[in-house]
Amino acid sequence: MITPSGPGKAEQIEQGVQYYRDWGLEVVVGAHVLEPHPPRAPYLAGVDDSRRRDLVDAWLDPDIDAVIALGGGYGAMRLLDEIDWGVLSSAALRRDGRPKLLTGSSDITALHEALRFHVGGPTLFCPMAGNRVFLDSAAIRDDVHRWLFEPWRGRRISKPATAVLSPGRARGTVTGGCLALLAGALGSPESTGDHRGILILEDVDEEIYRLDGFLLALQRAGRFDQATGIALGSWQGCTPVDGVRPLMDEFFADRGIPVLGDVGFGHDPHAVSMPLNVDAELVAEEASAWIEIDGGGA
Description:
Blueprint: H1 10-22, H2 48-60, E1 66-68, H3 85-90, E2 101-103, H4 109-118, E3 123-125, H5 132-135, H6 138-149, E4 156-157, E5 163-166, E6 168-178, H7 179-184, E7 197-202, H8 208-220, E8 227-232, H9 244-252, E9 259-261, E10 274-276, E11 279-285, E12 288-293
Parallel strand pairs: 1-2, 6-7, 7-8, 8-9
Antiparallel strand pairs: 3-10, 4-12, 5-9, 6-11, 11-12
């Protein structure tokens, strides 16, 4: 368990660690998880080198099966340029030959995208063990537990509120995550990769005009042109709330590909988990609205 982005709270980290131990897992906590932030940057969980060292050390440890981000915030993207991705690629498999897993959401989008581009293999976009949403919701903990312990193939992801913005069916590899992080990565090596497949998007606490700008940046960069289908998650705290659906309709309703809204992943207090870099089918029909996973690595 590591904090590659913002600082965590000791009590919440302890609670999150205990839940994972109660699941029968042997938890190793990163050496710098509670390191004081740099004097200049109280929004970081320690200096970049320390946060990067915890990430790399965990990934390279042959006894570690999954690297669990305890929280998001800001800072994961600051770690990427000094990582030797060739070395990480050489340690991408567990002792049993299956893929090593990264889990986390929000700012951890930067790590999901980097691992997809440089290493490959599945990752899991899910609520994080050191956050209140995980600690306060037994339903979320149960959902994360199922993704960690049960096969992924054939699982369907949707919520009662899931809506069809544009009908149809699509197949492809699932990529994406937090909209602001995807837009902020434009121009990076990771943004130049192959993004063909199902694109997922969500965000939190943004004004509509900023969401508009992020979407426009991705559109101009061609990210939407590579999408076979699009799944939209939660827009928790984005304002004005009644402006979100019209904005999404403007960008996606007439693209000629299936689009789902309100799938439920992201910063929703009842968020569902979403596998990334795995093949899936998106179904957007009047009586059927879900994403079904074709395969996975957990």
